Amino acid sequence: MTIAATTTGDAAAGEPAADEAAGLPQDTSLLRFATAGSVDDGKSTLVGRLLHDSKSVLADQLEAVERASRSRGATGPDLALLTDGLRAEREQGITIDVAYRYFATPRRRFILADTPGHVQYTRNMVTGASTADLAIILVDARNGVVEQTRRHAAVAALLRVPHVVLAVNKMDLAGYAAPVFASIAEEFTAYAASLGVPEVTAVPISALAGDNVVTPSEHMDWYSGPTVLEHLETVEVDHDPAGDVARFPVQYVIRPQTAEHPDYRGYAGRLASGVLRVGQRVTVLPSGRTSVIEGIDALGQSVQAAWAPQSVTVRLADDLDVSRGDLIAPADDAPAPSQDITATVCHLHDIPLRVGQRVLLKHTTRTVKAIVKEIGSRLTLDDLSPHHEPGELVANDIGRVRIRTAEPLPLDPYALSRRTGSFLLIDPADGSTLTAGMSGEAFAGAAGGVRDAGGGTAREDGWDF
After folding, report:
1. What would the pLDDT profile of 92-125 be if each residue is shown by its tens digit?
2. The dihedral sign for the CA sequence 82, 84, 85, 87
3. Given this model, what pLDDT does residue 455 score?
4. Which residues contact 350 (CB under 8 A, 6 or more apart)?
């Protein structure tokens, strides 16, 4: 049984012939995915089962897990220990940190992030899911959809994760009953659809027994859909860089000034999205000056094109004032720099975020001073209603804010680019990360837009902007 709520749109047209001639990558066999769910829903056990049953666990790793399991009085290997590596995690039987694992099957390579389930560590899911192509959200079949399930669904929607899998776990403890699975799948799918999640695939599983994780279950013959691994291997993931708008944040200016390269000036960085080509007219932001790409150097060789996520050096035909933090983009499709940012944020720090707070805002390779001008609303996860003008956001809150920066920044809407549409708010006193932000609209069904407001009161210490 597969339940899907899908929205479609016109994909950006690529140039296959030109891409092939330029040597653009055609490999789409890598899938990044994250697991999430409430405490004790079985996330680590699911990941351990995936690794074990797909033959991705080395013999010495399995022996270590078996020894640790015996020391805890277990009769068999506790597969959750394959990912719960911290001592506190093993002692408490919960996941605290994001555990990354790499494995492969003959059909696809995987990078997975096992994220925490405890509400205290929801902020860690933002880290794990920020680059994910797919999120697996687990639900205990005995408990159904709980508040933390809704919170994880909201985070996945906020981060624009393209695919969501609902894994209804512990079906063995629910008698493998089809009505239990159908009820949970219907409730979750309706909630996810209200958030604008484009696709939900529901799978009934037992991570402990291995039902429908890698091999089909003999106890649930009423389910005819894919196993979790089969879906991971076959889900379509679009990694075509030609379909995205090119964005190149400058990290470093290279000026060797040697006898061999007396006039060399290159701008080094990692292409955040899209494709850049020699001869292409580009704009440098936030200055707005334009030039033409004279050359692209990659791994010591001159190339005709570069695509995300390559690290390259770009040379321009004109000597412009370009430095770290500037953004190079196509001249005909460049974002408009602005000092006023309206965004949806997830607050990560124990210290609340308040109106009037002075922060540092980090966007790609640029960090500027900023002020929180307004907190328009906080999202209530039960019914997705907004709590207007809350005054502050505490840890794990999702809200809408308006921020004024000291310098204009070329942010894209997060819906257009997850890399150049995101930012971090940082405490200027100690450098700790306060908040993760996504510019532009949030997700469908979430109210609480930020009202327009005028300029703020002048402040001291250079924060008057």
Report:
1. 444 445 677 888 888 899 998 887 766 666 667 7
2. negative
3. 34
4. 395
Answer whether 309's CB lies under 8 Å from 270's CB.
yes
- Describe the crossing of helices 147-158 and 178-195 by its angle, rounded to 10 degrees: 40
Distance CA 377, CA 373 (A): 13
| Residue 438 near residue 344 (C-beta atoms within 8 A) | yes
- The reported pLDDT for the residue numbered 41 is 80
Best CA proximity match to 350, nearest among 403, 405, 422, 427: 427
Tell me: cis bond preceding 25? Omega within 30 of 0 counts: no
The pTM for the full model equals 0.78
Q: What is the mean pLDDT of residues 52-60?
A: 71
Q: Tell which residue, 20, 91, 22, 80, has the closest CA to residue 51.
A: 80
d(CA 143, CA 156): 21
CA-CA distance, 400 to 23, in Å (whole number)? Answer: 42
Handedness of CA 7, 8, 14, 20 (dihedral sign): positive
With tokens 């959750």, the residue in question is: 80
Q: Tell me how far apart the 2 most distant CA atoms of the chain are, in Å.
A: 77
Lowest model confidence (mean pLDDT) among 44-48, 151-155, 380-384, 451-455: 451-455
The per-residue b/e assignment along 354-364, b for 16 or more CB within 10 angstroms, e otherwise, is ebebebbbbbb
Residue 77 is predicted with a pLDDT of 61
Amino acid making up residue 256: P
Identity at 161, one-letter amino acid code: V
Residue 382's pLDDT band (cuts 50, 70, 90): low
Tokens 């770009």 -> residue: 314
For residue 302, give both structure tokens: 């001159």
User: CA 289 to CA 282: how far, in whole Å?
Assistant: 9
* Pairwise CA distance, residues 148 & 131, whole Å: 21
Tell me the C-alpha distance between 426 and 20, whole Å.
42
Do the beta carbons of residue 319 and residue 294 sit within 8 Å? no
E runs forming strands in 20-62: 30-37
**Closest C-alpha to 349, from 454, 436, 421:** 436
Mean pLDDT, range 1-8, rounded to an integer: 39
Most confident of 68-77, 81-90, 281-290: 281-290
